[in-house]
Amino acid sequence: MQFLLKLLARAVVAAVLLGVLFGGGYIGGWVFFAVISVMTVVGLWEYYSALHTKDIRANAKLGWLCALLILIIAQYSENVRLGLVREGGATLGLADLNVITGSLHLTLLVLLFCVAGTLVCQFKMREGESQVVNAATTVFGVVYIGLLFSFTLHMRYVDVPALMGHEAGEFARRMGALTFVIGPIWMCDTSAYVVGSLWGRMKLAPKISPGKTIEGSVAGLLGAIIGALIFGTWLGLSIWQSVLLGAVMGTVGQLGDLGKSVLKRDIGIKDFGTIFGPHGGVLDRFDAILFSMPLIYWYFWFLVMRVSGT
Q1: Residue scoring higher pLDDT (100 or 4)
Q2: I need a surface site. Which of 33, 78, 188, 307 has the fewest CB within 10 A?
Q3: How many CB atoms lie within 10 A of CB 132?
Q4: Which of 203, 189, 202 lies closest to 289 in space, CA to CA?
């Protein structure tokens, strides 16, 4: 009964979170940007606050500024790219490649500013603190959270049905790419949690995350593949594409989860936050998604470049 209550609590929180995320995503534009920005700021706050338990004083204000600049660049570039798509009738190609390249250059410029800025911030040396650690953790937070979250904005504008030549409704065209990542990842998490809790015996990585089991990990991988097949069929992907991408998400997502567990164990905390109740904080909920989103985005990008012959 206790397990069922925990599962129900997780389902309720997930439903509310999906409502906000998908509602903002369907509207798109700067509304979705605002949703992702809030999640990014909260995620960075969780991360920088957790570092205080180790007496690490990362420059949170600089981190927030650089992360938001990266998100602004991502959203603005997609607005420009969308305008080019509407004019040219293409989904992705050389016509808007300059926009993507410009976005990449500006993002690298922000990261350079972040590195230089955090080093300057360490000029005011405090006794008992490591300036190297303070600077490194500031930049790491911007890359790990800000940069990876920016791919959520990019993915919002990938029209998967159009890429695959598949007829689909408005929701699939607007939210299909995001759903294709979020759905299988959360099916992976749920499958791993249920199977691991009920039947898990063999520990997967006891020194990193004692609760994770091999049985749960296998179930999570299968859950991701099944989820990718379901959502891939909806969006017009072939079976082999869905299986391949599902396996990638099921593997990379769990590696991202373990990577987050390494950080938590080193810092000495159970969860990064409590904003999502039984789901923990932003980083606890989106760790696997953050790692998988760039890979799926790049897959769709290079697939289109190949298919279009540009």
Answers
A1: 100
A2: 307
A3: 10
A4: 189
Count CB neighbours of 265 within 10 A. 14
* Cα 44 to the center of its chain, rounded Å: 13
DSSP label of 202: S
> 109: pLDDT confidence band, cut at 50, 70 and 90?
very high
CA dihedral 233, 191, 37, 113 (to 10 degrees): -100
Structural contact between residues 51 and 58, judged by C-beta atoms closer than 8 angstroms: yes
What's the rounded Cα separation, in Å, for the pair 126 and 270? 29
Q: Label residues 220-236 b or e (16+ Cβ within 10 Å = b).
A: bbbbbbbbbbebbebbb
Helix (H, G, I), strand (E, B), or coil: what is residue 205?
strand
User: What token pair was written down for 168?
Assistant: 């689909």
Band (309; pLDDT cuts 50, 70, 90): very low
Query: Which 3 state secondary structure label does DSSP give 268?
Result: coil
CA distance 184 to 190: 10
Between 172 and 7, where is the model more confident?
Answer: 172
Helical segments of the chain, H only? 2-27, 29-51, 60-88, 97-121, 131-141, 148-156, 160-163, 170-199, 214-235, 239-267, 282-308
Given a cut of 80, is residue 244 above it in pLDDT?
yes
Q: How far apart are CA 213 and CA 293, in angstroms?
A: 24
Query: What is this structure's pTM?
Result: 0.90
Q: What is the pLDDT of residue 307?
A: 46
| CA-only gyration radius of the chain, Å | 20
Place of tokens 């004083």: 57
Q: In angstroms, rounded to a whole number, what is the distance separating the alpha carbons of residues 301 and 163?
A: 10
